[in-house]
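Data deposition worksheet. Section B asks for the primary sequence of the deposited chain exactly as it was used as input, without tags or linkers unless they were present during the calculation. Section C holds the resulting structure in token form. Section D is free text for depositor observations; keep each observation to a single sentence. Incomplete worksheets are returned to the depositor.
Section A, Depositor: J.P.
Section B:
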Amino acid sequence: MWVFDDPGVGLDKEPFVSGADTMIDVLVRDIPNAEKGFRLLFSQTPFPGYSNKLEWRREEYGGNWYFSPEFNMEGWLCPALFKYFDQAPKEIYVKAEPKG
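Section C:
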């Protein structure tokens, strides 16, 4: 199971579930030792080097479903999304990279 910490917004071991975990499996497949940690960058606007775009699909249970055209899969992002965005962005651009 993939989890993330962000003490700056009060999150500790927040899990990725319902397809978001599977998207991460694909996103980090080329990062050595990703299971020991990696950095995930994300923005509601494209940025240099982003590797994947997630498209908003619908709201459910306080979270939001996003679709990755590159991976042809969908995943649910929990309400922790609102620690970073005032409202669910129509698109989220991401990049995974090794830590350190």
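Section D:
The chain has one domain: 3-98.
The mean pLDDT is 96.
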